[in-house]
Each structure stands twice: as structure tokens, then as C-alpha cells.
From TrEMBL:
Annotated ranges, domain SET: 38-418
Pfam family, one: zf-MYND
Keyword Zinc attributed: yes
Gene3D superfamilies (UniProt xref): 6.10.140.2220, SET domain
Gene Ontology MF annotations: methyltransferase activity; zinc ion binding
Keyword set includes DNA repair: no
Record-given protein name: SET domain-containing protein
Length: 448
């Protein structure tokens, strides 16, 4: 991989060059206009690069924005508990599928001593057993992956196609995959699941850039198909300009190398920090080599440099937001619990065995991580005026930002990166991992 870094050092430096204030303004103006986001604007700040500002007054608890993710993923460990759309992360199937599948995959559907219950679990999973009142909680039907991987499912054909076109076609392990080696891709995914699934998010970012580049190049070739005898070096420069254009959404995110910015674990001594960071770098290199064997595109070689890969992961480490979508299973059982006693007794005879088998974790949210282009521009404050918070109607993977106090027009919209209830010393220690010392009004006052 160091060969790629050395061969394309100039291109890599251009890819990692921070965008100018004008580029930032133009990009986010287009993004907010295209996505019909009103009342906000992204612009450079005096101290922190860029920030999000209010263009109108916001009342407390008012919706500031819903931000569509650039890339996101469900944690691999969470897939046992939740069947969700691989694009928008809505829960899919039915209440029966959600409960039956979870019990089956967790091995809680009874053993040889409980064949009857085990059979009911399988009937639930295949929707051949209907639970009382489950129709009051309808979910979108399950749509298979276009590539046939049987690992990712969707809520609609629209989401399936959108995910396929944006990144999944290169990361699908099915027969219809456009990866160069399904075997290598499976090894990459296994390595990520065993070490750090943030590598999968990085792979999505690279795949998204490659597919955008191919689309741009195809459109450009179509326009110039009558032109002939281009010099190869001119064509190469032209192709890189297209790669820069495809990379543009990722260029807007604040980046540092992953092994430089990752927080030192509590069980690692400060004297061993250099060794720890070298191990993290080696882990990233192992992941990148597997990804290269799976989806390498020779025209996009700079993307497969360790420097680029490390900065992409570091960007997610510093800017990602937890992806959380509430499960309808909780709403279902709460509804049953509120039924009149006469009806509840009869319903409990059917549903209680499943609830007992599920245990305390009967309803687990969809959990993952995602990078949101506008939310990632929001600066931190220990006394923020906004928060990321899902409302009852927000049942998808978008970032929902609400005002937690009145915000005046022209005021910067801030969120807290950490638990703001901690004391000053604890807050500053946690924020050091983000590479800055907080100078918000609260920190200045407490420090004084």
C-alpha cells in the first residue's frame, strides 16, 4: 500500500486538501437547496472551520433539520436483534418476523425439550402465525437485495435500487455483485466484524466515490465520443478531475488520520501509546489490503492509499453520529399492556411466552453509525442550543436535530459531542479526543 501512497502522493494531497470557504459555501448551499432544508446555512466560523447558523428564529423543541446520511451502517452485532432496511434503516417485515427472527437467531426458541414453542417461533418468523393486534403496527414488506446476497434487505424497491447504485453493488456478496472478488469481499467483511466495523463504513465511502466517478466518466465520454486522439497524460489528468468531483462530498468533512486521533483506551499505558497507534495503523492496513483485493478500480487507485483510508476512518471517528431507530416491538407490547384486563388475560396466554423468551431485551433499537454532511458541520458546546433526538414520527435513519432552547436568526446552532452533565475536567478530557479545547461560555465561566 505504501507503493500507492508514494506513486500518487500529489493526487492524495489534492484529495486531502481542505476546501476553500467559497467551495464550502457553494457546496452546502446546493445541498440545502436540493434537499429543501430551510432556515439554516453552513458557513465558515472564526475558530472552528465551519458551522451551521440559523436563518430564521427557532422555538424550543422545534425541528431544525432532518439530515440525510451520506453513508451509514447497522452494527453487525445488532443485526440479530433487528431486521431493518439497508438504505433508510426503517424496521421491515412485520411484528411477527421481528420477534420470531430474533428468537430464532438467538437460539431462544426452545430446545429439544420444547419442540412446540420452537415450532411456533419458526411459524412467527415465516409469518404463518399471527399475533393478536399485530396488524395495528404495519411494517413495509421485505425486499431482497438486487444482487442476491441475502445479507441486506430493504423496505422498498426504491431503497434497494438507491443503495445498489450508491455503493452496495460493489459490496454485495451475491451472484450479481460488481466486486472483482466475492471471496476477498467476504474476507474483508469478516475482518471488519472481528476487529472494527467502522471499516465497512469506510468501504461504503470508497465504493460510493468509485461509482460516482464511473457515472461522471460515462457521461463525459458520451459527450466527447466524437473527439479522437487525446493524449494519455491529458486523459489521465481529466480522469483525476472527475475523481476529485466524485470525492467532493467526503472532502467537506474534517479529517485526521485514524491512528492519530483515536482515543487511547484506559487499559493502555501512556508509555505504550506509540506502540498502540502503530498497531491501529497496521490494523487499517490489513483491512485496506482486503478491500483492495475485493473492489479495486485502477482508475481510482489514490483512494486505496493508506493515507486516504486512514483519513476517511478518522473523519468518521471525529464526525459520526450514532444511528438509532426505535423498534416497533416495544410499541406493540406496550399497547398490549394497556389493554382492558378482560381482553389482556386472553392475549397474554398467546404473547407472554414470547415475551418471556425475549427477556429484558425484548425490544432493541436499530443501532449503527452514520456520517451526516450537515450535522457533521455543527460545532460543540457544553451548553448547546440543539440536540439530536428522534421524535415519535422519526422512524428512519435520518439525523433529527431539534432546538433545545430558543435560537435567534444569525445564531450558531450547536450540539454537544459528549455528556454535558459531566464536570469541567471530565468534559475537557473527553473533548481532547476531538482535538480541541472547548471555550464555550459555560467552560470559560467554570474555568474562571
Amino acid at each position: 500500500m505504501e507503493v500507492v501512497d508514494a506513486q500518487f502522493s500529489h493526487q492524495i494531497s489534492l484529495l486531502l486538501e481542505p476546501p476553500s470557504p467559497l467551495q464550502v459555501k457553494e457546496y452546502f448551499h446546493e445541498l440545502t437547496t436540493t434537499n429543501h432544508l430551510h432556515g439554516i446555512q453552513v458557513k465558515p466560523t472564526n475558530h472552528y472551520g465551519k458551522g451551521v447558523y440559523a436563518d430564521v428564529d427557532f422555538e424550543e423543541e422545534e425541528l431544525v433539520l432532518k439530515d440525510q446520511m451520506l453513508v451509514g451502517m447497522q452494527h453487525s452485532s445488532n443485526k440479530i436483534d433487528c431486521l431493518v432496511c439497508g438504505c433508510c434503516f426503517r424496521f421491515i417485515g412485520s411484528i411477527e418476523i421481528q420477534i420470531g427472527r430474533k428468537l430464532y437467531l438467538q437460539g431462544l426458541g426452545g430446545g429439544p425439550h420444547d419442540d412446540c414453542f420452537n415450532e411456533k417461533v419458526e411459524l412467527l418468523m415465516h409469518e404463518r402465525l399471527e399475533l393478536p393486534h399485530s396488524k395495528k403496527f404495519p411494517l413495509p414488506e421485505v425486499i431482497n437485495c438486487p444482487g442476491g446476497c441475502k445479507e441486506v434487505y430493504y423496505c422498498s424497491k426504491y431503497c434497494a435500487q438507491a443503495d445498489w447504485d450508491s455503493c452496495h453493488s460493489l459490496l454485495c456478496t451475491g451472484d450479481g455483485s460488481k466486486s472483482i472478488s466475492n471471496k476477498a469481499l467476504s474476507k474483508f467483511i469478516q475482518h471488519a466484524n472481528e476487529t472494527n466495523d467502522i471499516f465497512i463504513l469506510a468501504a461504503k465511502a470508497i465504493s460510493c466515490t468509485i461509482l460516482k466517478y464511473r457515472k461522471l466518466k460515462a457521461a463525459c465520454d458520451k459527450e466527447k465520443q466524437k473527439e479522437k486522439n487525446h493524449l494519455s497524460d491529458v486523459l489521465g489528468n481529466h480522469n483525476f478531475s472527475l475523481l476529485l468531483k466524485a470525492w467532493k462530498p467526503l472532502s467537506m468533512g474534517y479529517k485526521r488520520r485514524w491512528w492519530d486521533c483515536i482515543a487511547l483506551p484506559d487499559d493502555v499505558n501512556v508509555s505504550d501509546e506509540a506502540s498502540f497507534r502503530m498497531q491501529i495503523r497496521q490494523l487499517a492496513l490489513e483491512s485496506l489490503e482486503l478491500l483492495k483485493a475485493a473492489i479495486l478500480d485502477e482508475e481510482c487507485l489514490p483512494l486505496f492509499s493508506l493515507e486516504i483510508y486512514g483519513h476517511i476512518i478518522g473523519m468518521f471517528e471525529l464526525n459520526n453520529l450514532d444511528l438509532v431507530v426505535a423498534s416497533p416491538v416495544e410499541d406493540y407490547f406496550l399497547y398490549l399492556d394497556d389493554l382492558p384486563e378482560t381482553e389482556k388475560k386472553e392475549v397474554d396466554e398467546i404473547t407472554q411466552p414470547f415475551l418471556d423468551a425475549l427477556g429484558e431485551d425484548y425490544s432493541v433499537c436499530c443501532q449503527g453509525t452514520a456520517f451526516y454532511p450537515i450535522q457533521s458541520c455543527m460545532n460543540h458546546s457544553c451548553c448547546p442550543n440543539a440536540k439530536a433526538f428522534k421524535r415519535e414520527e422519526d422512524k428512519d435513519g435520518q439525523a433529527t436535530i431539534l432546538a433545545c432552547k430558543p435560537i435567534k436568526k444569525g445564531e450558531e446552532i450547536t450540539i454537544s459531542y459528549i455528556d454535558e452533565d459531566l464536570d469541567l475536567e471530565e468534559r475537557q478530557a473527553l473533548l481532547a479526543d476531538y482535538g480541541f479545547i472547548c471555550k464555550c461560555a459555560r467552560c470559560v465561566e467554570e474555568d474562571a
